[in-house]
Write a structure and sequence with these properties.
Blueprint lengths: L7 H8 L1 H9 L9 E5 L36 E3 L5 H16 L33 E7 L1 E6 L4 E9 L5 H15 L10 E2 L4 E5 L6 E9 L14 E12 L3 H8 L8 H18 L1 E3 L2 E3 L6 E5 L2 E14 L2 E14 L4 H9 L10 H11 L3 E4 L8 E2 L2 E6 L4 E3 L6 E3 H9 L9 E6 L4 E4 L4 E3 L11 H11 L3 H15 L5 H5 L2 E3 L4 E7 L5 E2 L8 E2 L18 E2 L2 E5 L8 H14 L3 E2 L8 E2 L5 H14 L6 E5 L7 H12 L3 E4 L1 H5 L3 H14 L6 E2 H4 L11 E9 L10 E8 L7 E9 L11 E5 L3 E5 L1 H13 L5 E7 L6 H19 L6 E8 L6 E3 L15 E3 L10 E5 L11 E8 L5 H11 L4 E2 L1
Parallel strand pairs: 27-29, 28-30, 28-31, 31-32, 34-39, 36-45, 39-40
Antiparallel strand pairs: 1-2, 3-24, 3-41, 4-14, 4-23, 5-7, 5-9, 6-7, 8-9, 10-11, 11-13, 12-13, 13-14, 15-16, 15-22, 17-20, 18-19, 20-21, 24-42, 25-26, 25-33, 34-35, 35-36, 37-38, 40-44, 42-43, 43-44
Helix pairs in contact: 2-15, 3-20, 13-17, 14-15
């Protein structure tokens, strides 16, 4: 069994968020209930010294010290006190006070939450870790040295305003070429394409206006430039500020705690200026066929190779993070070819149905095309397609008298006979003045990014084309640096910037894997994983689940006859591993056509319900064609409330013991069992977890797929339910506004006419569930938050820590367990490469458990990179952890070891 990806208990569960939602419906929704049973932990007044979970106030500046192990524990209850509401509301100011740079005066009113990152201070690094075998790795970071230059920032405004970065850069290039020596003092400025212009030294003026004339590139082709349409712009350049390099140097040395982002922005724009002029820009990445070629993804879509580039402050100084990348683009082909490929239409002579026409319009809307006519070079953006075939469309000529058909117009004017007159026309222009163009005469403009969701085949093709082993990826990163040729860039030289050509050499450590405990009845009662992997041979599940009612539906046509034998072997494996799994299906095992998924699942549900044998598990063999998994899960989890286990037909047909073992592990956790537990948890040896009741949260927000502009985002939160083992997790999900990253329902109140203020929310629900499961109230909260970008750290921290505090206070007045809030990032571009081939796993990647908290990490903040998993294919991506709030006083070693160990176990409840 290969090790789950970083923080597996979180990511696995979030992937099954909807499944959890249905499971959680079966548990009574007890958000307004009180903690009925007695739990350990002292209930102290606000004037008492503060232990874990006590009601003492938050400290004013520094986190509190750990409690004494000998602190007395007494029985207590948690309830909804009349003052809980006001207590919860008052926490907003208290939490924000804890997070601000300046301590709150005792005589002032509670402050409002800080409105910017400048008002928030994150925990400083408590020292670097020492546990583990030391080693050296290379990181795709390149040291950047900057000479002491007099940086100037100028604000740029244009009249009329220009929204296109490409046009803005063309405009600025015209100014530099025309006025560099006469008006710009010979400076070579760096421009961000919008409102900011930077120079290494002052310009001869503080404010000046330029007049620029640009030729409309979308005009009609003509040998005479005077025939082209010209547009005139007024460009105002005004001094805005003088970024301070000294402040940046002091921050990098750890003498200042506030990052001078404006100075870093200047240097970043300088390093990105030349690539922005030469390549296709997508976010922080650059793409071009010149950067490694391109390839087909199918359906009229291709991929371009490129690279990601970002300037970052690190412990070793300024670092330029460069990583290879790939993105999908429209192929530059005729629209008719695109329709053939994208919709697999072999006969374009047939008229389109309304349904097909709508699909084509959705696929083409917003795409730029260029007519294949020598005297007409205008690029047009498709705003729609006509409802009628082009053979039925007529329009009035410029004389405003003659009415002709589009077919006749192209035959008379261009001597072109349209081959596909039954196809609808492309509509450009506006609704008031539409322009109709034949699909067969329009070519898709190259370099347009394809932003819609790729299908399974395209994703597979993209991964196959871009998946690279560490050695090849490292070589390609190095090649991108050489292609950039920073040392030959005049602008980079003028700003005094030097980029080293060698990847950063970084000190790392390989953490020891945890000992995993299995059931004592197995031949092997425990195991220490090697290279991030282990198997279930000679082992039994530590707690086997029970399945009395189950059946199987087979949607595969190629493997329609394997159902009975497959289920027999799977049930046998489950029982062998310690589950209690009924040998016979509760209702008939059946096959079904993949076109009847909805009906087949509904039939199974109705039959099991009518026989009073509600299914505890539905085994599903998926259709041969991919793409049905999401639909099946949605129906089972959100409509029928059935726990399901999907199996790939090709894998199922192999009857592999390893495949059956993996399925048994997944099934066991879905029906309430536990596969394994950490041996240190059983022996109460996990620092900051085993000494006092501790709950571990994981949270993420899933956003709609690209192209969906209206669907809700889904927030999911999981929490451990079995202290001290911290192995079983229960979850809850909630819909929230479109693409909203902050979790809205962590804590909320509703005004009820009869009950008054009713407290609820995801945190509160899970705290109540923890108490009902363990008989304890949590004294510590460790919160792993996935999916937050660095620009959102302050906002997410301020809102979500405040919500956690309010949820706790709403359960019992003064109930304030200590909180540690950690952001988990997987969508970053730092990669770690081995320097010694004897210190790699079988895939050539760095070893599982490799941790880095030096060199490429934040200059002062508490962060680290952890590669907890074994590589399977390609280059492993370490997870980046940022500690944003810490009242539990974690050391680097304790938090890194805890996080690594948690990655070896996950259970859902």
């Amino acid at each position: 069994m290969s090790l789950p990806m970083a923080l597996s208990f979180l990511f696995y569960f979030l992937f099954l968020a909807f499944s959890i939602f249905i499971l959680s419906l079966s548990v009574s929704y007890r958000l307004t209930a009180i903690f009925r049973r007695g739990g350990r932990g002292s209930r102290r007044g606000r004037d008492s010294s503060r232990g874990p979970g006590s009601s003492g106030p938050l400290p004013q500046v520094a986190p509190t010290q750990p409690p004494s192990p000998s602190s007395p524990t007494t029985s207590t209850t948690l309830g909804n006190h009349p003052s809980s509401s006001s207590g919860a509301e008052s926490l907003s100011g208290e939490v924000s006070q804890k997070l601000t740079l300046e301590p709150q005066s005792a005589t002032t009113e509670p402050p409002l939450p800080p409105s910017s990152s400048k008002a928030v201070s994150f925990p400083r690094r408590p020292g670097q870790g020492t546990v583990g075998e030391k080693c050296m790795v290379r990181a795709n970071h390149f040291l950047v040295e900057v000479a002491n230059k007099d940086l100037h920032h100028y604000h740029v405004s244009t009249t009329p305003e220009i929204t296109s970065k490409k046009v803005n850069r063309t405009m600025m290039r015209e100014i530099v070429e025309s006025y560099k020596e006469s008006h710009l003092g010979g400076r070579c400025p760096a421009y961000d394409g919008r409102k900011s212009l930077y120079t290494a030294g002052a310009l001869p003026f503080d404010s000046k206006e330029f007049v620029v004339k640009l030729i409309d590139e979308d005009g009609t082709r003509s040998s005479s430039s005077s025939a082209r349409k010209e547009r005139q712009f007024k460009v105002a350049v005004k001094l805005a500020s003088k970024p301070d390099l000294h402040h940046l140097q002091e921050f990098l040395r750890g003498r200042h705690f506030e990052c001078p982002q404006d100075t870093i922005q200047v240097l970043d724009v300088v390093l990105r200026a030349k690539p922005s002029e030469n390549y296709n820009v997508v976010g922080r990445s650059f793409f071009s066929p010149q950067l490694g070629g391109k390839g087909e993804l199918g359906n009229g879509i291709e991929y371009w190779r490129g690279y990601y580039q970002s300037l970052r402050p690190t412990q070793m100084g300024l670092s330029l993070n460069i990583d290879v990348s790939a993105r999908s683009f429209y192929e530059p082909i005729l629209v008719t070819e695109f329709v053939e490929k994208h919709f697999r239409r072999t006969n374009l002579s047939r008229p389109m149905s309304d349904q097909d026409r709508n699909k084509v319009e959705k696929a083409l809307k917003g795409v730029k095309v260029e007519p294949n006519l020598m005297e007409y070079a205008k690029t047009c953006k498709i705003v729609g397609i006509s409802r009628e075939p082009i053979s039925q469309i007529t329009f009035t000529l410029d004389d405003k008298r003659t009415n002709v058909s589009v077919v006749q117009y192209f035959r008379d004017k261009y001597n072109i006979v349209l081959k596909y007159a039954s196809l609808p026309a492309l509509q450009c222009g506006s609704e008031a003045k539409p322009i109709y163009l034949p699909m067969e005469l329009c070519r898709i403009v190259g370099g347009q990014r394809y932003t819609k969701k790729l299908n399974d085949q395209q994703v597979k093709a993209l991964l196959k084309a871009t998946c690279q082993r560490p050695r090849y990826r490292e070589e390609n990163v190095h090649r991108m640096v050489e292609v950039n040729n920073f040392e030959g860039d005049e602008r980079v030289k003028e700003f005094g910037i030097q980029v080293k050509k060698e990847l950063a050499l970084v000190e790392a450590r390989v953490l020891p894997p945890p000992t995993l405990k299995y059931h004592d009845s197995g031949q092997e009662r425990s195991v220490i994983p090697r290279f991030g992997a282990w198997n279930m041979v000679n082992k039994k599940l530590v707690n086997g689940g029970k399945v009395d009612f189950w059946t199987c539906v087979n949607f595969s046509s190629d493997y329609a006859n394997i159902s009975e034998d497959f289920c027999k072997e799977l049930v046998k494996m489950c029982n062998d591993k310690g589950m209690v799994f009924c040998q016979t299906a509760s209702i008939r095992i059946r096959s079904a056509h993949p076109d009847r998924i909805d009906q087949a699942l509904l039939d199974v549900f109705k039959e099991s319900t009518s026989l009073k044998r509600p299914l505890q598990l539905l085994i599903i063999i998926l259709p041969d064609q991919t793409g049905s998994y999401g639909k099946i899960k949605r129906i089972c989890d959100t409509e029928l409330g059935i726990v399901s286990q999907c199996c790939q037909p090709k894998q199922a047909a192999r009857f592999s013991n390893q495949y059956f073992e993996n399925l048994a592990l997944k099934i066991n956790v879905k029906v309430g069992g536990r596969n394994t537990v950490l041996d240190d948890a059983i022996q109460r040896k996990i620092p900051r977890v085993s000494d006092y009741p501790t709950i571990i949260f994981g949270a993420d927000v899933t956003h709609p797929q690209p192209g969906d502009d209206s669907s809700s985002s889904i927030a999911a939160v999981v929490a451990s339910m079995d202290w001290p083992e911290v192995t079983k997790y229960r979850g809850t999900v909630s819909a929230q506004p479109h693409r909203e990253e902050i979790i809205q329902d962590l804590y909320k109140t509703v005004q009820d006419p009869q009950k008054g203020v009713v407290h609820s929310g995801m945190i509160r629900e899970l705290l109540v569930a923890f108490f009902n499961s363990t008989g304890q109230k949590p004294h510590r909260i460790i919160f792993y938050r996935d999916g937050v970008g660095e620009g959102q750290f302050s906002q997410v921290l301020l809102y979500e820590v405040d919500a956690i505090r309010k949820a706790c206070a709403s359960l019992q007045e003064g109930y304030m367990p200590r909180v540690t809030f950690i952001v988990v990032q997987k969508r970053h571009h730092t990669r770690l490469f081995p320097t010694d081939r004897n210190q790699t796993d079988w895939s050539g990647n760095i070893q599982a458990g490799t941790v880095v908290d030096t060199s490429v990490c934040h200059p002062t903040g508490f962060d680290f990179y952890l590669n907890s998993h074994a590589g399977i294919q390609g280059t492993s991506r370490p997870t980046h952890y940022h500690v944003l709030y810490d009242e539990n006083n974690f050391t680097a070693d304790i938090l890194q070891i805890l996080t690594n160990n948690l990655c070896y176990t996950y259970i859902i409840l």
